[in-house]
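User: Hi! I'm a student and our assignment asks us to look at how structure tokens line up with a sequence. Could you show me two examples?

Assistant: Happy to help. In each example below, the sequence comes first and the structure tokens follow. Example one:
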Amino acid sequence: MDQNRLFLAIAISVAIMLGFQVLMPHPKTVPHLAAPANGPNETTLNQSPTPAPLGTPGGQLAGTNAAASAAALAQVPRLKIVAPRVEGSMSLVGARLDYLVLRDYHETIKRTSPLVQLLEPLGQKKPYYIQYGWSAAPGTTTKLPGDDTRWTPSAPTLSPNSPVTLSWDNGAGVTFQIVLSVDNDYMFTAKQAVVNRSGAPVSVFPWARIRRDYTPVTLGYYLLHEGPLGVVKGTLQEMTYAKVKSAAKDHDGLAFQGSDDGGWAGITDKYWLTAVIPDQISPVTIAFRHLTQDGGDRYQVDFVHDEAETVAPGAQAATTTRVFAGAKVVQLLDHYGAEYHIPGFWRAVDFG
């Protein structure tokens, strides 16, 4: 009798597992498209400069239909992005990576449904973007690029075989550059460089941030984290949107802060992830933030270098930042973690 019950329990367990695999939705893939032929006001927090919140966004569009999206994208000059698994563009005003479509995934299981759009520009219904920048060292007066800075690209299109350099001259002998590259999957690399042709040293703090200027609808599962997360000093930090909002309320917008020689931070959805990753040898401060602007919620995940980068006259210096923007494929996260020494990068996937 006990043996029959054991066999029955095993059969029921197998049936449940098979049913789960059949009934639960999974991202559908489509064949790769052909690649192109050619190949703010600075603030301080515990004596550390922080990426300041963006200015007031422009008017929102009524919807996110194709015509409205095209019109919004056409309002500013853009750098085209074409890669095997992503395509989109980057705003050359403010150096914002703000329009990205995942070429392997549709919004539903129907192949005729739209591809998943991960990032969205300012002025649209759900702004979600990544930005690079510098903060000035205390006591310095170097003119820095800001949200309205118009960058000049070295080429019109960024692809795996064609890196692009964005440049801006501050008019006082200092040129800021963002040297961009993208691989065949979901990793962008940005070398943030400062070229000093002035007669005085220049001291700046490089930073990168992710902004989500709305509160997304989440599934609300206890075993599935959606929201800001990161690994700081080897420890996984996770906060829901509600927790970020609550924690930031009494701390001038700061919900979490931690320092590390590297680490990473990002925002995760059920299937997708955006993450900013500093080089893994420089001390940085990682933060989760929330602010209320124009009656709406603004969430930010960022890092800033703890030590000023000082560039002597006639010299140049650069730091490397990586950005992941794509699907949470465990094998791929493991690969990136090993290749770039990113601690616990696979932990972006919540195994419950």
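Example two works the same way, sequence first and then tokens:
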Amino acid sequence: MAASRGTGHGQYLRGVRSLKRILVVSHSFLANDPRVRRGVQAFLDDGWAVEGLFLDEALTEGNLRTWRVPIARKQGGIARYAFEYIVFFVAMFVWVAWRSLRHRPDVVYVNSPPDFFAVAAIPAKILGAGVVLDIHDPMPELLNAKGRSSQLAYRMLTWQERVGAGAADSLITVHEPLADVIRTRLVDAEFAIVMNVPDPAGWPELEWNDESRTLVYAGTVANRYGLDDLVRSMHAVGTDIPLLRLRVVGDGEDLESLRSLVSELDLSDRVDFVGRVPYSEIRSQLEGTWLGVNVPKPDDLGELSFSNKVVEWVNIGLPVLASRTTTMERYFPEGTLLYTTGGDIDAISESLREADRLTKSEFRGHIEASRVSLAKIAWDVQRASLLEAVSAVASR
């Protein structure tokens, strides 16, 4: 682990001595993880000195200084995940102890799974710092959705969830339905809710073209998100919507199987695989599209799904076709998004046909209703919740 040196390092040291100080740790790339990046920026804007441990190259910039754990994230089995997590855990433990001995932080913010990373913050906790654990996903349900679960794996994941929560002074999660699920295993747990919604700054409104029939999906390419169902639905629709296309922005564990399915159904000329693009370029990939599509399968994880991509699309004025789940309907009630039944190819096909029959005025009604709902959970609201939760731990 190494941070950049030189003039920036000296300026950082001179500038942060009197500031509140937070260590942010995430087994992710700061540049590519919007939730982590938004949190870091919120702390900086609020006057904190931020030190971070991530997978990116180290940097020093203003009141932000980061270090890198030099381990590549690779797709693989449980053994590969375990190897990466153990290496990162050890690096985090050493880094937290080192930075805490140099200058005690007010808070350590663990902002990625697995939950047991919170245990590696104990050196700072012993010295008086508070520990915040942000639970993004319920790991037992995530493993089930990936088809890799077993009774032993489930027990291990629920155990690490309890251990991580026990090591933290405060818990954050992404919405109330997920908090309710975790409380079935952590009965007395109290959560601050910081939803995974984007900061709309720098994303101008889309000039939506109602004559387009290009669907767009942006995110991880995995069957649990229903992309195979979407492609099969396009095949079922056939010539009913002659201009129907799909743009897939991203990559993931099921990319090759999805490509094979597209080829098998003879849809290669109607599905465009863009691949992963920098976050700053995602907005441009939405130009000329008709509907953003988010149709996760109806399993335990899918029922908890709340995609920040949906919020991005609503924010810029792109209509959204989404699976009807308890979580989505809690925040976007009937009449906002265009809802369908995830995992049901016939239902998705019919939903596409129904959307094709909507007038431009009817689409505008959905867009405006979605924005009214979004205003209640926008980033400004979530930012305030995050700063309140972390500041409360710092002041204990």
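Here is something you could point out in your write-up. The mean pLDDT is 90.
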